[in-house]
Amino acid sequence: MLAARRNKVSVVALALCLPVLGLSTACGGGPDENPPSTAAVETRRDGECQQFESFSGQLLVGNPPPVRTGLVPAQPGEHLPGPARPRLDSVDLEPTLDGETVTFSLGGDGSMGWSVRFVQTPFLRGTDGAVPILGSCILQIDLTSVDSNKAGDGPGLPMRLTPDGDAAAVVEVLTYSSSGTVTQSFVGTRSSTPEVTVDTSPDNRAITVAVTY
Predict the structure, then answer these.
(1) 59-94 burial, b for 16+ CB within 10 Å, e for fewer?
(2) How would DSSP label each residue in 135-162?
(3) pTM for this one?
(4) What residues are paired with 58 via a beta bridge?
(5) Which of 25, 88, 113, 185 has CB 3.0 to 4.6 Å from 175, enough for a Cys bridge?
(6) Is 2 helix (H, G, I), strand (E, B) or coil?
(7) What is the chain's alpha carbon radius of gyration, rounded to the nearest angstrom?
(8) Using one digit for the tens of pLDDT, what is the confidence trace for 71-101?
């Protein structure tokens, strides 16, 4: 009797699903002919981030020429050089004993600014679409007055770094080419309560962001 009742329920459920399936097909329930652009992709989250810290500062790279002030007028026909700007030579992700470090190696000469902060929804500068990055917390790193045309893999395409192990503190790092003179990187962390330490080194011409659990 129990088996017969189960079969009867299955037949009734199938009969109810057929009209719904037909209606879905008639309304265009097949593959989307116009998939959303990458700008509309929502960022996935593995957990709720509980960190809200922010850090910022300035860094003098190399030996930039002195800035000419308005107190010394330019001579007729004299061509004044533009402001010196450092460049971003490379971005590296390396493991440590309790996490990973993201190192921004700099070249050239000039003064630059940097900021590191946790964001709820990461947006690429000049766009209205969320950056498609994985992680419980997203750390946004902005380098200002920096040239980095080689940072990304093409217009709107980031350079992507991932750690070797699945248990790393960092899930992935995305670095985009300069927009104007601003270079943006996004770090997705595995933990919802990561600890971040920022170190700047004028001698090594580098900014290091350490992420631990």
Answers:
(1) bebeeeeeeeeeeeeeeeeeeeeeebbbbbeebebe
(2) SSEEEEEEEES-B-TTSSSBTTB-EEE-
(3) 0.72
(4) 113
(5) 185
(6) helix
(7) 26
(8) 566 667 666 556 678 999 999 999 999 999 9
